Amino acid sequence: MDKFRQFLKASRASIVMVMLIPVALGALGAWVWDGVFNVWLFLLTLLGAGLAHLFSNMINDLWDYKNGADTGANEEVDAITSHSGYLTNGTWSVKVYTIVTWSLFGIAILSGVILSIFSGWWAFVLGLLGGLIAYFYVAPPLRLGYRGKGFSEIAILLSFGVLPVMGAYYVQTSHMDIRAFVLSLPIGLLTTLILFNHHFLHWKLDLQAGKKTLIVVWGEAKALRFSKVLLLLAVISLLVAVLVGSLPYYALIAWLVLIPLYQVYGKLKDQNPSRAYLPLMGGSVKATFRFGLLLIVIMIIQGLI
User: Fold this and answer.
1) What are phi and psi of 70, to 5 degrees?
2) What is the DSSP track for 41-110?
3) Contact yes or no for 22/165 (Cβ under 8 A)
4) How many separate domains does the chain show?
5) The domain spanning residue 180 has which CATH number?
6) What pTM value is reported for the model?
7) What is the pLDDT of residues 1-33, one digit of tens each?
8) pLDDT tens digits, residue range 89-114?
């Protein structure tokens, strides 16, 4: 059990819902719009997507450790790290960490292969694309998360919005639908907001390690304004989803769960100590989970009536 707890911490399994919620939304889209739902394909999609997410967390930490982005934590007092510390403190060797990380990817790929047999080759392609984005988010030569030109945010929007929603929908129906793409945008943008706000906690450490996030490039004040823009885009995209028929009109009630997050911004200045961003990060996670779960309930209600 101790090893299992270590694995849960190393993989940051506590936030795997940011991947499972989009998968559920995509599968529910197939049920609501097409009257199709295969529970076994759905469960296998959840498994593959969930393991792919854990892989992305661990490969991110592995490459951040190799690139030196995590090792400076002891030297930078005003930085809050979210990695397990198993590599920096020697709890796990790099070899063990690597084996566990790639084992997750292997099982996720196997899930994609099985799904492609039953649903079509796009199921594998979409899953593989998500895996490649996760890997090259921090790995050379692309290192999307280190470039500071918006590649990081686009990668997250694709990996935690567009690909899981459209992939889960495709697995159930074996075809694409523009409504699935539009449905992916609100939850995808909110998940992107989680990652963006997470960078506020350790942007000085990122600067020290040469990791050029948008916060490092722009500075706190401009990055905070962009954070608000991401929230606004999520709000607008929910309205668009209703207008194109991806969601029923009463889905707009989900706007209410975003209000507490919006209120957090009023407590922040243009420059803040790292700990001041903890409520923003926590509010982002809570808002995204509540928003996504509420949309799931709304789609179930829509399907039943």
Assistant:
1) -100, -25
2) HHHHHHHHHHHHHHHHHHHHHHHHHHHTTTTTTTT-SS----S--TTTSSSS-HHHHHHHHHHHHHHHHH
3) yes
4) 1
5) 1.10.600
6) 0.91
7) 688 888 888 888 889 999 999 999 999 999 999
8) 777 888 999 999 999 999 999 999 99
